[in-house]
Design a protein that fits this description.
The protein has a seven-stranded mixed β-sheet, sandwiched between helices. Helix 2 (95-106) links the parallel strand 4 and strand 5 (111-117). By secondary structure, it is of the alpha/beta class. The radius of gyration is 17 Å and the shape is globular. The chain has eleven helices and seven strands. The protein binds D-malate. Residues 27-28, 94-95, 155, 190, 217, 243 line the site of D-malate (MLT). The site of D-malate has 8 residues, from loops.
Length: 273
């Protein structure tokens, strides 16, 4: 990516300047629209927006640069600066959480509050990394999103898969709209990410760690690992939800984000007084 990369921003609402804005970062292999059900359920009037990560949704392809979530985080920071946001509550789900951690590492002044949903701070093990590279190659070779299509069902928790199979159709429709090149780039970028647990040790601001109790991809143990590294965490375990809590239980996610943003506002006010 170039230093002038601008990503697509989905603005759900614009609020008063004295309340911290909330920035939502989506999961793989989806885009900002995965937050559609959550956005109206975040209490309060604050600015709420979501960013399409590089090569996904309506954001431009990442070009030929070596895939890196650091570049994705830099692009998010540049994009936010371009719309006048230099301080925000940053909330990421899964891959969005990896990017939130990269933002915290590389642009710490931006992050007033941190929401880590169904994600992990650790790097991939060798098998996971090898599998990502295999999937990326398959996406590029086939020129389709076939290799990630099964994720529509696999990311849901057992309860959602059984009781609300229509959610898989909705996630599948989002996957269909991604480009194989953008999805492959994201896989390679995730494979290259470092362990960022130490970054959490250095963050003293308010944090939310939220996880579905049926999440297999980033299970409760991964959430507890992050909680142990944070100074001011609030852990929320969402019952009967899998990896995509924002789609499976938007009301719990909206409420938890509102609570995090409220804590971040109070800290900002204290710092100003
Ligand atoms: C996601 O939901 O963003 C993915 O499960 C992240 C990953 O593959 O590690």
């Amino acid at each position: 990516m170039t230093p002038t990369t601008r990503l697509n921003v989905l603005t759900y609402r614009e609020g008063p300047r004295d309340l911290l804005p909330v920035v939502l970062l989506h999961a793989f292999p989806l885009d900002s629209r995965m937050w559609d059900d959550v956005a109206p359920l975040v209490p309060g009037a604050r600015t709420l927006l979501a960013v399409d990560l590089p090569g996904l949704g309506s954001s431009a392809g990442p070009g030929t640069s070596a895939p890196s979530l650091d570049d994705a985080a830099d692009a998010v920071a540049q994009t936010l600066a371009a719309v006048g946001l230099t301080r925000a509550v940053v909330v990421g789900l899964s891959m969005g959480g990896y990017v939130a951690l990269a933002l915290l590492d590389r642009h710490p002044g931006l992050v007033a509050g941190l929401g880590l949903l169904d994600t992990r701070s650790t790097a991939d093990d060798d098998d996971t990394r090898a599998n990502r590279l295999r999937v990326a190659a398959e996406l590029e070779l086939s020129g389709t999103v076939d290799a990630v299509r099964p994720m529509a069902r696999a990311l849901l928790g057992e309860t959602s898969r059984t009781l609300r199979p229509e959610l898989a159709d909705r996630i599948g429709a989002l996957i269909e709209q991604q480009t194989p090149a953008g999805v492959a780039w994201s896989q390679r970028a995730m494979a290259a990410r470092p362990d960022r647990t130490a970054t959490l040790h250095g963050f003293v601001g308010p944090a939310l760690v939220l996880v579905g109790d049926e999440d297999v991809a980033a299970p409760v143990a991964a959430a507890e690992h992050m909680v142990a590294a944070l100074t001011a965490p609030h852990l929320v375990v969402v019952p009967h939800a899998g990896h995509l809590t924002a789609i499976e239980d938007p009301s719990s996610v909206g409420e938890a984000i509102g609570e995090l943003a409220g804590r971040a506002d109070i800290d900002e006010q204290r710092a100003r007084d």
